[in-house]
Design a protein that fits this description.
Layout lengths: L2 H9 L16 E7 L2 E7 L6 H11 L8 E7 L25 E9 L6 H14 L4 E5 L7 H4 L8 E2 L5 E2 L1 E3 L2 E5 L15 H13 L6 E7 L6 H9 L4 E6 L3 H16 L4 E6 L4 E2 L6 E2 L6 H8 L4 E4 L4 H8 L4 H4 L4 H17 L1
Parallel strand pairs: 2-3, 4-10, 4-11, 5-9, 5-10, 11-12, 12-15
Antiparallel strand pairs: 1-2, 6-7, 8-9, 13-14
Helix pairs in contact: 3-11, 5-6
The chain binds adenosine-5'-diphosphate.
Adenosine-5'-diphosphate binds next to helix 3 and helix 9.
């Protein structure tokens, strides 16, 4: 009899009658088997159910004669999430669709500062402008910038009667961000593994999104826990990667693209941001960071370029003031580029 067999028995014990989503094994923080004595430490997800959980352990292990004495203790912090290996080429996790959402699209990048959040926000607004119902989830929980970009920094998320988060409506889209939940703007967000997973899952599944055609996710840059958690747990239509034509950005976006492929999230295409600058006096285009590099990268990964967004100093200035270009300057070259990309995405996804 190994601890693994005991864990298997606990895994088979459903706790839905106690109002818990987890099975018994998922609450185990620590477990030791010494001879016939089993010592289990369980996470107590809510108070008052200690004896019920204790009974569940006894029931689960009633068919395991090797365990004679069972001692169950409780802890008030959740167990660490196990690091899981993701096998290449097969979906190894149960991905759940978010109810009411037709298409979920993650916007990722290799590096910070390439304009990922600017793209996520303006793309969401462009999809809404061409007639879709759209939500935007700021999953960049380490550096949420969506509240600034949409000019809703001071607002706070509320909770509905059904105990669900109520997104803030801005420019016709539904918005959720950890930045709209912290006591103040300067509160540092220090999340540790299990808490992070829980927050993200809650953002997605316990929110009053209603019926949406598109939910855009602004991911943190790079290839960290957030990307993996989402890829493992949530059914997505795909990811879009944003890069500038700079070598440093391209080196990292290659890694991000490979990660999406490895976890079987289809990459819908690449958006080249800060692709060129159009001189307002002459109308001449200058490819400040170089030309053709993003196309080369896209070709090597067999990806489509969904569009190229020019550099526009107004974009930076207005973004900081919470005025997204698609709303404030719908006729600008940048806004038109976003609408073009939105149309391609809508066409591709049907
Ligand atoms: P990321 O999410 O990748 O960290 P941001 O969206 O925060 O990047 O953008 C980084 C900075 O670049 C911001 O100041 C933003 O306003 C600016 N920016 C993004 N795209 C453009 C663009 N096309 N033209 C000019 N400035 C841009």
């Amino acid at each position: 009899m190994a601890v693994k067999d005991i864990m298997d028995a606990l895994r088979g014990k459903d706790l839905s009658d106690l109002g818990l989503k987890e099975n018994l094994a998922q609450l185990v923080k620590d477990i030791k088997l010494i001879g016939e004595d089993l010592d289990v430490v369980l996470y107590l997800p809510k108070p008052g159910i200690e004896s019920l959980l204790r009974d569940k352990v006894h029931q689960a292990l009633s068919g395991v004669p090797e365990v004679k004495n069972i001692r169950v203790r409780f802890a008030d912090s959740p167990p660490p999430q196990p690091k899981q290996e993701i096998p290449v080429g097969q979906p190894a996790f149960t991905r759940r669709p978010v109810p009411g959402i037709r298409h979920m699209i993650a916007v990722g990048s290799g590096k910070g500062g390439v304009g990922k959040s600017t793209v996520a926000v303006n793309l969401a607004l462009a999809l809404r402008n061409i007639g879709y119902k759209v939500g935007l989830l700021d999953a960049d929980i380490y550096g949420p910038s969506v509240p600034t970009l949409l000019g809703i920094k001071g607002e706070r998320i509320t909770v509905s009667e059904r105990n669900k988060l109520v997104p803030i409506e801005r420019f016709g889209i539904k918005v959720l961000s950890i930045g709209l939940m912290l006591p103040s703007e300067d509160t540092p967000v220090i999340w540790r593994g299990p808490m992070l997973m829980k927050a993200l899952t809650q953002f997605l599944f316990d929110t009053e999104w209603g019926e949406l055609d598109y939910l855009i996710l602004d991911l943190p840059p790079g290839t960290g826990d957030v990307q993996l958690t989402l890829a493992q747990n949530v059914e997505m239509s795909g990811a879009i990667v944003v890069t500038t034509p700079q070598d440093v950005a391209l080196a990292d976006v290659r890694k991000a693209t490979s990660m999406f492929k490895e976890v079987n999230v289809p990459v819908l295409g690449v958006i080249e941001n800060m692709a060129y600058f159009t001189c307002p006096d002459t109308g001449k285009r200058y490819h400040i960071f170089g030309k053709g590099k993003v196309a080369e990268f896209a070709a090597s990964y067999n990806l489509k370029i969904l569009g190229s967004i020019p550099i526009d100093p107004e974009v930076a200035e207005r973004s900081d003031r919470g005025e997204p270009v698609v709303i404030t300057h719908p006729d600008s070259e940048v806004a038109r580029a976003f609408v073009g990309i939105a149309k391609i995405i809508a066409q591709n996804l049907g």
